[in-house]
Amino acid sequence: MSEHGSGSAVDFDPTDPKHSQFDLVREGARRDGVEIVHYQPRFAVAGTKREKRIERTIAFLLVLSGLSALAFIVVYVAWPYEYEQGYHADKLYTPLLGFTMGVALLALGAAVIVWVKKLMPEEVAVQDRHDNNPNLDERALTAATMMNMVDETGIKRRPLLKGALAIGAAPLGLMAVVPLGALIKDPHGEDQPLWTTGFSEGVRLVRDDGTPIRPGEVSAGGLETVFPGIPHGTGLQYADSPTLLIHLREEDAAEFKPRKGFEDAHYGNYFAFSKICTHAGCPASLYEQQTNRLLCPCHQSQFDVKDSCRPIFGPATRRLPQLPITVDEEGYFVAKSDFKEAVGPAFWERP
Ligand code: FES
Q1: Which residues belong to the signal peptide in this entry (predicted)?
Q2: Whether 284 contacts 295, CB under 8 Å
Q3: What are the respective helix, strand and coil percentages of the chain, to the nearest 5?
Q4: What's the rounded mean pLDDT across residues 226-253?
């Protein structure tokens, strides 16, 4: 038992200035049905070499935690800065996030454990449950108990740990908050990626090997998957751009029902629709020539091509967006503009 304390358990006045903080702590514990049976500071003499060594270990762990949290923020925000086809370092993005966050939290946990086990006083207490409502006295005792816990950490007389804690805690706090920043980007506006694809006015429609297409290269009743003819247009960077160039037979084209505003979106009997299913984003690429239906193999949605790709079966509820097309002076298919609506499945703010 320590030499702390002079208060009697009977008629104890918590407001008496003669009591030490620990007297209040022990009295508070007693009133809560807790008996402190053993209390011993770790170091009888302050400032020993061993104590300093432990402080340095904790400071190292806290700084390591802070630096790892900083590294997490840097990776999260700045690396890889932009997607580049063929640049495989971006595959390390998620593992690096996990590694830096793991080191930050592990180092913090280790610092707390070493601090509690090696620096804070040893204490053994036996506690009973109590259901009394707190009164003013008990609040004073509880406050003293809290202050005592702070004192026991020794933070006030350990400037090294105070500094290390500040260095470690600030980035850790940021590490928790920074990912929220990704949620505040405004999804509206023409340049937002959810509203745009790789197509824009004058961009050629090309096959997956990059070759452009002229009318006549797709047989009547057939279709071809096309991509924007721009750098990386056939790659994953423009994964929302794959489009179906459909050549309707003469009689089917005559029955085509254009949507309002899309009367001039086709070129002759050629029509272009997004290949990305509006249900969950699978490629809707099975074309039933006889019925002029596009089928999505994932959940069997069907779209009526002659009715501007209106969904007629399955879970999809929106049409496949139509890409306005024409041909350029060399006779190759080009887009007249980007899609006029967002392609693919629903997202926030999308009607
Ligand atoms: S993704 Fe096409 S039907 Fe579900």
Answers
A1: none
A2: yes
A3: 40, 15, 45
A4: 93
Distance between CA 14 and CA 20 in Å, rounded? Answer: 10
Q: Please choose, from the candidates 25, 19, 21, the residue with its C-alpha nearest in 3D space to the C-alpha of residue 7.
A: 19
Nearest CA to ligand 1 atom 1: 280
Give the span between the Cα atoms of 2 and 222, in whole angstroms.
Answer: 91
Query: Which tokens hold the place of 114?
Result: 């070493």
**What count of other Cβ atoms lies within 10 Å of the Cβ of residue 141?**
23
pTM of this structure: 0.55
Q: Which helix (H) or strand (E) holds 93?
A: helix 93-114
CA-based end-to-end distance of the chain: 71
Is residue 311 packed enough to be buried (19+ CB in 10 Å), middle (13-18) or exposed (0-12)?
A: buried
Which atom of ligand 1 is the closest one to the Cα of 300? Answer: 3
Give CA–CA dist 271/275, Å, rounded.
Answer: 12
Rounded Cα distance between 273 and 324, Å, is 9
Q: 290 with 283: CB under 8 angstroms?
A: no
Locate tokens 């040893």: which residue?
122
Q: Where does ligand 1 bind, in terms of residues with CB under 6 Å?
A: 277, 279-282, 284, 296, 298-299, 301, 314-316
**Distance from Cα 75 to the centre of ligand 1, integer Å:** 34
Tell me the residue length of the chain: 351
Residue nearest to atom 3 of ligand 1 (CA): 299
Residue type, 318: R
Q: Side-chain half-sphere of 263: how many Cα atoms within 13 Å?
A: 2
**Structure confidence by residue, pLDDT tens digits, 288-303:** 988 999 999 999 999 9
CA 314 – ligand 1 centroid, Å: 8
Cα separation, 79 vs 93, in Å, equals: 7
- The DSSP code for 138 is H
CA 1 / ligand 1 centre spacing (Å): 72
**CA distance linking residue 105 with residue 19, whole number of Å:** 40
Q: For ligand 1, atom 4, which residue shows the shortest CA distance? A: 299
Average pLDDT, the chain: 85
> Which is the closest atom of ligand 1 to the Cα of 277?
2
